[in-house]
Amino acid sequence: RLTGETEWTQNGRYTGTTELALTENGAKQVLATGKMIVGAGKLIDPSKLAHVFISPRKRALQTFDLAFSDAAKQMLKDANKVSETIKLAEWEYGLYEGLLTREIRALRKDHGLDADKPWDIWRDGCEGGE
């Protein structure tokens, strides 16, 4: 999974369904990474891809658009090898969308949760989310 930097990823906020564009730096990162790893004979060779699935989030679509050359994108699209799918959409963070870890822990404490151990997303999940 490859997505460029957004304002929220830059400052550590949990980003799920909120539509955020790439930052200027994020776009530069994707362009530079794309030039290094995407292309004929490179790690991601568009001619050898069976299919490219893209999340419908703006940041994911921008990442694809910047990482692949116009010719590679056209070749993949002409061969029906590009699909935008909600199945790849980012997590639903529920009440924690856009919050920092410390803010989530404070919120959970206010809700009477985590009295015996600090919140762990993998163990405890997200209120109102996944």
Walkthrough of the structure:
GO terms for molecular function: sedoheptulose-bisphosphatase activity. This is Phosphoglycerate mutase. It is a single chain. By secondary structure, this protein is mainly α. The chain has a domain at 7-88. It has helices spanning 7-11, 24-37, 58-67, 70-78, 101-110, 121-124, and strands spanning 52-54, 82-84. The chain starts with 6 loop residues before the first helix and ends in a 6-residue tail after the last helix. The relative contact order is 0.17.
Task: Strand order, main sheet: write it out.
Answer: 1-2
Strand content: under 5%
* Strand segment count: 2
In angstroms, what is the radius of gyration?
Answer: 18 Å
Question: Please, what is the average pLDDT?
Answer: 95
Shape: elongated
Query: What structural class do you assign from the helix and strand content?
Result: mainly alpha
What percent of residues adopt helix (DSSP H or I)?
40-55%
Number of helices: 6
Run of helices and strands? HHEHHEHH
Q: State the distance separating the first and last CA atoms.
A: 19 Å
Give the low-confidence spans. none
Largest sheet: 2 strands, parallel
Binding site for substrate: 15-16, 59, 90-93
GO molecular function, one term: sedoheptulose-bisphosphatase activity
InterPro entries: His_Pase_superF_clade-1, His_PPase_superfam, PGM_Phosphatase
Protein name: Phosphoglycerate mutase
